[in-house]
Design goal:
By secondary structure, the protein is mainly α. It has 2 domains: 82 residues, no CATH class; 168 residues, Cytochrome p450, CATH 1.10.630. A two-stranded antiparallel ribbon has the order 1-4. A two-stranded antiparallel sheet has the order 2-3. A two-stranded antiparallel ribbon has the order 5-8. β2 and β3 form a beta hairpin. The two termini are 30 Å apart.
């Protein structure tokens, strides 16, 4: 999706560099001391940027449909005014924004389906009921039960728990004076579990998204796993499709049984992932 296929052993090196990059995001002491996670993150970032820059000219002659190649061709139009540095930065940004957030979402929905077998069966029945055409683009938008389960999963465990911003102008919030140019954040996880907006917010209840209840429509920014407004995630439809395609192939062939203990939780830094590495059993149907 991001860099194309046919990379061979190079894909392993690129993946490791990307993993090293992610490993340095939440490091508090950002000092380039050799052997530390932050040092590895710097090296991984440099490796990725160099590789992308060196392959821009190669991709100009490629007809592959991956994101990197598409950006290279987009930059060939003089009207777009994109430099090699722009191509590299955009590719890394999209890769970072879409890769682990989708992983987080898939882990969360697998966990929820294992904990709530009654909903797992409803999703399975819906997917098995699709006609011989399978799961096409149009069908993705017509999966009512699957969509509600996915929405409720992202309400419980949003892949991005906070959105950092900086105030442009001074403002007042609940009696507090916030100066201009102050670091602020939208706490997505808090909003998603606020009793002000949701009934029984800690209960897994996909039916809260039914048209008759539509709890998520009480406020335009109360369900924001992909952000909202002008800065809403560009890839939210793509992420939605990825998860539904994954579930289509998995649940039509396997039943998920959770092996997680009652105290299993979630690690939230740098992104939400199961703290116990999500032990599951897949039982063939």
């Amino acid at each position: 999706v991001f860099l194309g296929s046919g990379l061979g052993e190079e894909s392993e090196r690129l993946n490791q560099a990307f993993v090293d990059l992610l490993g340095g995001i939440a490091v508090l002491a950002q000092l380039p001391i050799p052997g530390t996670a932050y040092s590895r993150a710097l090296k991984g970032t440099a490796y990725l940027r160099n590789w992308l820059a060196q392959n821009v000219d190669v991709r100009k002659h490629s007809e592959a449909g991956d994101i990197f190649t598409s950006l290279v061709h987009l930059a060939e139009d003089p009207a777009n005014e994109m430099s090699v540095e722009d191509i590299v930065s955009h590719t890394l940004l999209i890769w970072f924004a879409a890769h682990d957030t989708t992983t987080s979402s898939l882990c969360s929905i697998m966990s929820m389906l294992g904990q709530h077998p009654e909903w797992q069966e409803q999703v399975r029945r819906e997917l098995l009921a699709l006609d011989e055409g399978g799961l096409g683009f149009d069908a993705c938008g017509e999966l009512d039960v699957t969509d509600r389960v996915f929405r409720e999963t992202l309400r419980h465990i949003p892949p991005v728990t906070m959105v950092p911003r900086r105030s442009i102008d001074a403002f007042e919030y609940r009696g507090f004076e916030i100066p201009a140019n102050t670091a602020v954040a939208v706490m997505v996880d808090y909003i998603h579990h606020s009793e002000q907006y949701w009934s029984n917010p800690h209960q897994f209840d996909p039916d809260r998204f039914l048209p008759g209840r539509a709890e998520h429509k009480n406020h335009p920014f109360q369900w924001i796993p992909f952000g909202g407004g002008a800065h809403k995630c560009l890839g939210f439809k793509f992420a939605d499709m990825q998860v539904k395609v994954f579930l289509y192939h998995l649940l039509r062939n396997y039943r998920i049984e959770t092996l997680r203990g009652p105290d299993a939780g979630t690690r939230y830094v740098p992104i939400p992932l199961p703290s116990d590495r999500l032990p599951l059993k897949l039982l063939p149907l």
